[in-house]
Design goal:
The structure holds three protein chains of three kinds. Chain A has a single domain, classed as MetI-like fold (Orthogonal Bundle). In chain A, 68% of the residues lie in helices and 0% in strands. Chain B is of the alpha+beta class. Chain B has 15 helices and 18 strands. In chain B, the strands form four sheets. In chain B, strands 8-9-10-1-11-16-12-15-13-14 form a ten-stranded mixed beta sheet. Chain B has a four-stranded antiparallel beta sheet with strand order 4-5-7-6, covered by helices on one side. Chain C is globular, with a radius of gyration of 24 Å. Chains A and C meet through helix 3, helix 4, helix 7 and helix 9 of A and helix 1, helix 6, helix 7, helix 8 and helix 10 of C. Chain C: One of its GO terms (molecular function) is dipeptide transmembrane transporter activity.
Amino acid sequence: MTTQPAAVVRSTRRRPPATLLVGAALVLLVVLAALVSFIWTPYNPEQAFPADRLQGSSAAHLMGTDRYGRDVFSGILYGARITLLVGLVAVGIALLVGTPLGILAGMRGGAVEEVSMRAADILLAFPALLVAIMFGAVFGASTTTAMLAIGIGSIPGFARVARSGTLQVMSTEYVLAAKASSQSAFRIARRHVLPNIAGMVVVQCSVSFAIAVLAEAALSFLGLGTPPPVPSWGRMLQESQQFLGTYPMLAVWPGLAIAVAVLGFNLLGDGLRDKFDPKLNGGR
Amino acid sequence: MEMKFRFDEGALMRRSSKKFSLAAAVLAGALSLTACNAGAGSTASGEAAKDSVTVALTGEPVNLDFTTTAGAAIPQALMSNVYEGLVEIDQEGNIQPLLAESWELSEDRKTYTFKLREGATFSNGEPFTAEDVKFSIERVQSDEWVSSLKSKMDVVDSVNVLSDTEVEVVLKQPSNAWLFDMGTLVGAMFDPSGVEDLANTAIGTGPYTIEAWNRGQSIELAARDDYWGEAPGVETATLRYFADAVATTNALQSGDVDVVYNMQAPELLSSFEGDDKYQVLEGTSNGEIVLSMNNQEAPFDDVRVRQAVMHAIDRQAVVDTAWNGYGTVVGGPVPPTDPYYEDLNDVYPYDPAKARELLKEAGAENLDITFTVPTRPYATAVSEIVVSQLAEVGINAKIESAEFPAVWLDQVFTKHDYQMSVVLAVESRDVLAMFNNPDYYLGYDNSKIKDAAAEADAADEAGYAEGMKDVVRTIVDDAAANTLFIFPNIVVADANVTGIPANSVTEALDLTNIGWK
Amino acid sequence: MAIRLLVNLARFAVTYVAATVLVFLFMRAIPGDPAQIALGVNATPELLAQTRAEFGTDRPLIVQYFDWALGLPMGDFGTSYVTRQDISPLVLDRVQVSLILVVLAMIVALLIAVPFGTLAAVKHRSPGGILVSGASQLGVAVPNFLAGILLVVVFAVGLGWFPANGWTAPAEDFGDFLSRVALPVLALASVQGAILTRYVRSAVMEVMSEDYLRTARAKGLGKMEALLKHGLRNASIPVLTVTSVQLAALIIGAVVIERVFVIPGLGSMLLDAVGNRDLLTVQSVVMVLVAITLIINLVVDVLYTVLDPRIRKAS
């Protein structure tokens, strides 16, 4: 699990829109799978059918069955829901905490900046995986602790992006003018800063989402994520380890699902970055 | 070369014919391999006349002191290898002499007189004498031992040294269980000058000493040249510790380890069965997979609901699905190696209709329960199929996972805050520990068995077995808990390794007979 | 500049102390009494009280905190009541293992990323460049543990070229060390290399659009030549920053790989200690990990200050 400070990747040239399109298509695929799982899965993904265990792909079971005779395809569909849920909540936490923190730091400077950036520094020293291990120990492994941990781990990224964006906006003439006309700080933030950094923040969302998907998979793999019997891609992968020699497809499907989701969000992020004004993508 | 594996024949017979032929094939393969030793020697471990062996285990000891620290990993590494008792439990579950050459039991069955082996020494050079026996037994009773198991020594009234090689142990009342317990870790013999730093140094009379402990990786045992008995099969035995079963078999396949003991993922066996470079042994253990129900809380305070659970679960299907068919279905909480074992499968046959009927009678249709599952491979595997079978009779069990050991011990074991759980009960002859104590987490009302159990313990050997059988039958009739199956002790090893103790009858992993063809 | 360095140091100190408090308090919230876990089944209240006193977990929190926190900078992490051993030497062993693993992985990752990233930037319109970009996108999308499992299945279990897992210290047997470290390093480096390739690519592309490079090319230098002469040094600054940030992330991120390859690093020590409720070890390992991250950040900040005074404006 590694972090990717989005701000460092800069593009100076418009990429073909293919990145954006492919990314959006892959993300859409994952979202569709999750939505479909709400109304229909071929089988109950948690229901074991011991008689049908460890079957290959067939018309009855598109992706075969696992050691308990559960339908893998149903598990993959349902797992998309868990993956998206974890991503949404984690990114949501990071967005709602990190962005205001960054804006505040960028606008106020001085002591406020120092304190909020120190807070971000402390958080930065606790990567998501470390927080998740600690959370898992304290609250027990669950989807909730995984979401919280990944969310907390993603806060500094948002704070830094928001702060550097804010710093640039604050030096523009219209903000200086607004300041001169003694508009309130809140109004400046709402009218000038937010709209101008929104693009960068959206990009950060997409990139953080990809990281969250990987993080959730790693946590479930370590047994610190979603507990059984709820299907999660990371745990499906972990459970398939015993069958690599005999039924390798059990590992291929969840592995592929994770790769599709991560690739989708990364490409989407790259595409969006090119779409928004690249000049605003200032580094640290 | 003599085959040193001792299978539990009973367990072997009970297996399906497919399994039987498989095991037979493994045996045959292991035997025939003597002939093609050179051909099989492609892995690092295959060379002839090796004087070391590496055994893969899951779960490293946290320290070396089982007198104050719980956990099976410590006695597994140390008992029989570093520490020895007056007696030992053999592969069939029988009591055999070890540091005591022989013993006599008085008429009133309360006084044991042990004649000790001469010439045995501790690894610090001190001779083993009757004083050490007195010291060791009294130490268990003192505050030095901080372990729940110390209660097994409560029955001892006094220890009297008669001479250097003779010691008399007087019990408060006759006890069949006590002598057996002396073959487990509470019976380990210590030297008074060797107990200062038990957590980091182990000084016993056994054939091995601890040569090195690379924490997080392995414990190296070196054979003593001043051991009183027959020298062990190899000079160096290394116990390597892994986090999960997949890593152990990977290490076996790449030649890093020679034996994988107590393998925790039977699904992995398919790549070893039928490969004549390897041998697969399925021994029995004294571990029961117990589907526990909180007898003191609704809904399982109603015997009909518990009986419904007994009928609702197809135990053979559980073994087949969760543990790939390895394991013995016995129907009661007693492994086949115990003297009071009997097959109790007929008491509650798989009968979902009967289960639904019982639930209806109890007014517990469409029951919602929480199923607290410890985070262990066997528990997760078992729980998924159990939930599925319970659903068919109208019991909706919601899985809640509890980290093992920490959270499970705290929540289920100590606070009894659970409805249903599943756990591997590994202690030997633990049926009374589990059911003859209403404060135990199972909460079984022991009024019906209390006196019978005490009577059995005080009776002679035949009376002990018969009396205990009655006790066990009462427990099963009351559906106190659902013993799903006896946990198999699965061993996968290089085909040339001999003398692996296939059965796990006590906590110990006895390395002394392990050697090479 | 001296003031600047002092400020960096002061920030480091404040962050560090805050982190010790956070970690300590957090660890006290872990459910499950360490004494209970040490005793296991059937612990009686008297035994529990006796064990708590022995562990020192019955003392006031503030006493326990200072006892621990003041020892940390001296390298004295205390004695674990679970293993009954001094924690410091154990942690030191594990730190070495983790650092060797992670630094090697990072070197291999850079060896992959620099040439491929540069290639992808210089030839960003050609099939080769697009292929590299595509491959790096795919590489980033693969969880490193999946890469690790696949490597074991193919190269250890299948082909038998390498041991499947385990660790040997380089000083003990260097050949064995190399054969054991190869697969985990490859697993970490393949994913890390893909991430860095993307950074190298964009850094180089940015440099290529700078005026001085255009001038160089106008003077008749080839694309590659101009880049080598003028561009790489400038491109290397952001890449080095990312590398050091990633290095810190990788030390904890490697825990999954340590599990797959049974490597006795800090990560597996942490997971084991959590399982055993070895609080003192858990908080010490966490603090070591946090301290490593903070030190790397400090070094990066200091280097920035030293190398590029203009950075003051942005930071």
